[in-house]
């Protein structure tokens, strides 16, 4: 990977701006091999979740890479998330320990509440604060939180989330939420940055891609990076994993960034956080 870049989180921890996502990738040897391949290519951030049902294979790939001398554990940044059927204080503590056990790891670098759900996240955040204050995780954050949810965390709790991981791509730029996060020193991380492939035939993006002899996916990921957005594209194909990493050898102009911003349609590929019924 060319010149992997890092962003400093609000607690002083450095996180890679480009990570490897495994949403909807089935548990098994194919995923374990893909994780190891991503690490071999140069990825240092791996993102999974309790609900994905694939933490064991993610952990297998990580540990194989470590055991083969490809990387040291402290060079990796591993994220998982607690699911919404277990957001009591004790259930969250138990979920964290279960994730560690499945992955065969002593700690995670980042642990997130996956969805705010029906405002059931307060006890879960208290548990995350406990895990963090006891030094069992390097950073804690949230996923799919709206401004109202973030307001409550900022007003009612001691530890500020370092990350809000949200659906974000050129058709859903989330400007107001991003601005709120920026004002409060919370980093934004994009899930589904390529909109599950829906953007890969867009004519405006295609024109920009042709100027740089890059793919549309690379243009979108570069757009994320230039906005200071952490991004976690998903693929199990080695050539695509490598391609997604090759975004540090060019730079979009301000005009190109604005043109991509203008593609926004407030269009989601996943559920709206305020409408997702748990």
Q: Distance between the terminal alpha carbons, to the nearest Å? A: 39 Å
Q: What is the global morphology?
A: globular
- Sequence stretches where pLDDT stays below 50 over 5 or more residues: none
The structural domain count equals 1
User: Which CATH class is shown?
Assistant: Alpha Beta
Q: DSSP strand (E) fraction?
A: 15-25%
CATH architectural label: Alpha-Beta Barrel
CATH superfamily: NADP-dependent oxidoreductase domain
The average pLDDT is 95
Alpha-beta content class = alpha/beta
Q: Would you count the extended β strands for me? A: 10
Helix content: 25-40%
CATH topology: TIM Barrel
InterPro entries: AKR, Aldo/ket_reductase_CS, NAD(P)_OxRdtase_dom_sf, NADP_OxRdtase_dom
Binding site for substrate: 114
Pfam families: Aldo_ket_red
Domain NADP-dependent oxidoreductase: 29-264
Task: Give a quick set of tags describing it.
NADP_OxRdtase_dom, about 15% strand, globular, single chain, TIM Barrel, two-stranded antiparallel ribbon
Describe what this molecule looks like in 3D.
It holds the Pfam family Aldo_ket_red. Keywords: Oxidoreductase. The active site is at residue 52. Belongs to the aldo/keto reductase family. It contains ten helices and ten strands. The chain is α/β, with parallel strands linked by helices. It has a single domain, classed as NADP-dependent oxidoreductase domain (TIM Barrel). The chain has an eight-stranded parallel sheet with strand order 3-4-5-6-7-8-9-10. It has a two-stranded antiparallel sheet with strand order 1-2. Helix 2 crosses helix 3.
